[in-house]
Write a structure and sequence with these properties.
binds pyridoxal-5'-phosphate, seven-stranded mixed β-sheet, 11 helices, globular, 13 strands, alpha/beta, Aspartate Aminotransferase, domain 1, 2 domains
């Protein structure tokens, strides 16, 4: 089986992820922050180490690293923590449904276009501001085409206009630098199970602001327990209930893996992606957003064979890709592919040139 759907979740994970989870389960499976017993303290200490690792990775204070169950949870926490029915926000025309749907439910919003140039994008943005515009949300990388977005400029525009900026780094973390200070964003969120090589059930909300978010869920935190309301300070304010300790420890190992080998892995992934794209273009296949800087994600279409059929043919050959809308209707509307979607190929740390050749052989035959 050849796995080329690493944008959905990376697979396989490096052995260190599973080993760390196994160790956590066996050696310190107590509830962190819920007691003074040695095992609970050990669990809390190990969780804190991951907070520190993630803090270093994103250049944020450890207490501003909030563990969530996935990027969607983190996105909902940010959006509903800031916006309400009286506010307006701006979202890009490439947003994942993890942004579009909670925004649609929460407030009024306008969709801005990521244009061919940064200047044009900012010019359009400036014409869309309203009195009650409170925030701008932009994905750092499209999960459909791998296109890298001008988020740094967008965050700077947000700051200049007194708006809060939220960056979706679900397809960026582990592929391009995600230093929140350098990006200048107020809030960043990401999956833990994609380019950070953590397990399912992990995501991160990273705060680069002192703005206090309204809480999405409330409950036990092991601190200020006599009070009826959530503690005012992060991370406890946003982490009600028992943490996914094994998942968090696995995520820590994934972050170690990416921190150590990321550059080498990325180099290979980009090389394979560039080769893949060049061959597809040579076959006369449409490759979307090929003129922009990219991460190892490629969307393509054959003119007279549906993406679903291409997917089926690849599956029959033992090759896993993903066809359809990739939970990103806005992006597909932007590309004009919202009727049938695209075929998406996403390369990960463990893919080889042979995997890409195998895929190309099937596509060529079709
Ligand atoms: N945002 C983007 C850009 C994504 O690609 C995804 C997942 O594919 C998400 C958000 C949601 O991630 P999760 O499944 O971890 O909630």
């Amino acid at each position: 089986m050849i796995y080329l759907d690493n944008s959905a979740t990376t697979y396989p994970k490096p052995p260190c992820t599973a080993e760390a989870m196994n160790l956590a389960m066996k050696k310190f499976g107590a509830n962190p922050g819920r007691g003074g017993n040695p095992l609970s303290l050990k669990a809390a200490e190990e969780v804190y180490k991951v907070r520190e690792k993630a803090g270093k990775f994103f250049n944020a204070k450890p207490e501003n690293i909030i563990f969530t169950q996935n990027a969607t949870m983190a996105s909902n926490m940010a959006i509903k923590g800031i916006l309400d029915s009286n506010s307006h926000c701006l979202i890009s025309n490439y947003e994942h449904n993890a942004v579009w749907r909670p925004v649609h439910r929460t407030c009024s919003y306008s969709v801005f276009e990521i244009c061919d140039t940064q200047g044009e994008t900012l010019y359009r943005l400036s014409g869309m501001l309203r009195k009650n515009t409170k925030c701008i949300i932009c994905t750092a990388v499209s999960n459909v085409t791998g296109r890298i977005m001008p988020v740094k400029a967008i965050c700077s525009f947000a700051r200049d206009n007194g708006l809060i900026s939220i960056v979706d780094a679900s397809q960026a973390a582990g592929y391009i630098p995600c230093d929140v200070k350098d990006l200048g964003c107020d809030i960043l969120f990401t999956s833990g199970h994609k380019g950070l090589y953590g397990p399912f059930g992990t995501g991160l909300l990273v705060l680069n602001t002192d703005v206090q978010l309204k809480t999405l869920i409330e409950g036990g935190t092991g601190t200020t327990s006599n009070e009826a309301h959530q503690p005012p300070f992060p991370p406890e304010r946003y982490e009600a209930g028992t943490l996914n300790v094994c998942g968090i420890i696995g995520l820590g190992a994934g972050i170690d893996f990416v921190s150590k080998y990321g550059e080498r892995i990325n180099e290979k992934e980009y090389e394979l992606t560039a080769d893949l794209r060049a061959s597809l273009v040579e076959y006369g296949v449409t490759v979307y957003d090929k003129e922009f800087n990219f991460t190892p994600v490629t969307s393509f279409n054959l003119s007279d064979v549906s993406p679903a059929e291409v997917d089926e043919r690849l599956s029959t050959a033992g090759i896993c890709v993903r066809s359809g809308l990739h939970c990103a209707s806005l992006a597909h509307r932007t590309l004009g592919t919202h009727e049938r979607g695209t075929v998406r190929v996403s390369i990960g740390a463990f893919n080889t040139r042979r995997d890409v050749y195998a895929l190309l052989k099937v596509v060529k035959n079709i």
